[in-house]
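Purpose: get a first structural picture of the assembly so the mutagenesis plan has something to point at.
Setup: two entries, given in the order below. No constraints added.
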Amino acid sequence: MKKNGDPPRIDRRVFMAGGTTAMAAIAAGITGAPAGFIENLLHKNFKEISPERLQRIVQEMEADYTAKYGKTVTVSTTGAQPGVVFGYGLDLSRCVGCRRCVYACVDENNQSRDPQIHWIRVLKMDKSKGIHLEGSDPYYDPEEVPEENAFYMPVACQQCSNPPCTKVCPVEATWQEPDGIVVVDYDQCIGCRCCMAACPYGARHFNWAEPEIAADEVNPDMHYLGNRPRPKGVVEKCTFCIQRVRKGRYPACVEICPVGARKFGNLLDEESEIRVLMREKRVFVLKEDLNTQPKFYYFYAT
Amino acid sequence: MLNRIQEFIIGSFKLTLKGNRTYHLWMAFLTVLVLSGAFAYYRQYTEGLIVTNMRDQVSWAFYIGNFTFLVGVAAAAVLLVIPAYVYNWKPIREIAIFGELLAISAIVMCLLFVTVDIGQPLRVLELLPVIGSLNVPSSLLGWDVLVLNGYLILNVVIVGHFLYKAYFKKPYNKAFVVPLLLLSIPAAISIHTVTAFVYNGMAARPFWNASILAPRFIASAFCSGPAVMLILFQILRRTTHIRIRLEAIRKIAELMAYAMFLNLFLFGAEIFKEYYSDTDHLAHTEYLYSGLHGHTALVPFAWVSLICSVVAFILFLVPKTRMNMVTLNLGCILIWSGVYIEKGMALVIPGMTPDTLGEIYEYIPTWTEIRIGAGVFAIGFMVFTMLCKVAIPLLHDTLADPVAPGEPYPEKL
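Result (structure tokens, whole complex):
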């Protein structure tokens, strides 16, 4: 599934990891420092960490967060399941623009409350103009939705199969997982924001300040590549709720949607919800001319 | 050998300490700017980039614009190196080293501007090949890191060699330095091209996604960089014994006139395409030149830039105004300002306004950004001043003319 999978580089990585471990061992021997400390200084790239070291890092993380938020936090590193590529469907004819998905997402994924970060942006569009991004309004604020003569188009990460954001990253801090989810390693990101410039959907968000979340609002069910707390100065984005979907649950936005406009499933399974709707309805993707090949399909069910 | 290098470095450093009142005032002024920038940066470092006016909609702005402009300035060297070493033209060969000094200073500023822009500056080591996780060949920014540092090292080695040999009053090693100088020509072109490709490769941003971008970068770079050189040369003519021939200045001015023509022509080609095809993508150009839905922050800058570039072109095109030092200097200042606005603000910001989902977020820099930017420029000018301070007395023996400062040269003018 991964288009830019590159066997020679894995060789280099394995070699490098060996070298790094050896260097760490030597350095630890000389300085008498614990191996973990030196290792942390040498390398942090998620894809290159040994399973033992990853386990150690995760344990430290869980202990830190548990102490910080006063509740038991778990940080999962569950990988992609074989035979699964996630896809998303959004029914434009049903969406009423209530933005419940926006805030369910914020709660689930521990986005900063101040300054606010939203992974989903709902665009209000004029019925008489159709889908026209330039004329859309993300800040609509009426007494009641839906409004007359308007329809709504929620936009989040389109989880492209040919993502322009990952290839521009100068430090390999973001990549597409085998199940199609584009993730960011917050310990690797240098905050250059190249990926934000490259994303055609405004799906990537930067922590301009130290993110703030009240301890009692923190979701303790975390994933390393998803909703664990981010430091300031790094980029974050929608992960299809990686901490949920890899355990067989729906993303939070799908669950909360009061009108059932959001669908989700395994694109490789013909009987899945997403495949059924792709068969029964007519779907389209945003900005298809850019060849980003989104796995986020819009459709009109009624 | 090591002793001699140490002696050279200490000796050179001592040279930068001596100077007249103007020199010390100038350095004190730059120090004040550096300190002001450092305090502003400390605030940005502790509070985050929230102290800038950049946001998710306009996620690159003032810093990256300045970076882009200065990559262009670093090219000034090549416009001197080509006539000096490819065409072996003596009047320019004698002064080509100042181009390299400027290139070093400009690249230092470039690297600083990138550093102040990133959210996690302590992680810059990740950008190192092998030790870090530099993502080449895929990431153009990764390539940019390589070529910029390569160009910096190349120029440091060339200048270091010239000065080291001059320090011990020995002739420079031609077999060593000339191949490096020739290599610096494609290296200079590559830093522009790769920087342009960083923008150019982003299909999400139609304003940047035009093949004309890299040629435009190079054309405008050949205007702005030499403009600084011309003004510097005239200062050196008045204040030192360095032999800077008027014909060298005039040749550079002539080359700049060609570059300015090309720059305006490419600009016109882009304007035609945007307005004639009149697609949704025109919004970015419209935002720049006429404003969009009442948002007009960049409009005055855009027109000032264009007018500066056109007037400078006319001044450089007409032989009479090109030969006249007053109008020549005016032209230099105009083209510098024109290109500074064009590359500094009018490239990055409209590329992101409106954003990819059509929202208009109007960006103007905060004082913190301006102070940090001024601090970076001050460091660059400091590096350049100190390098000149070392180079001028050292090269005096090989370059000096038996005339007093400011006195006309015995050549046909």
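Confidence is low (pLDDT under 50) at residues 400-405, 409-413 of chain B.
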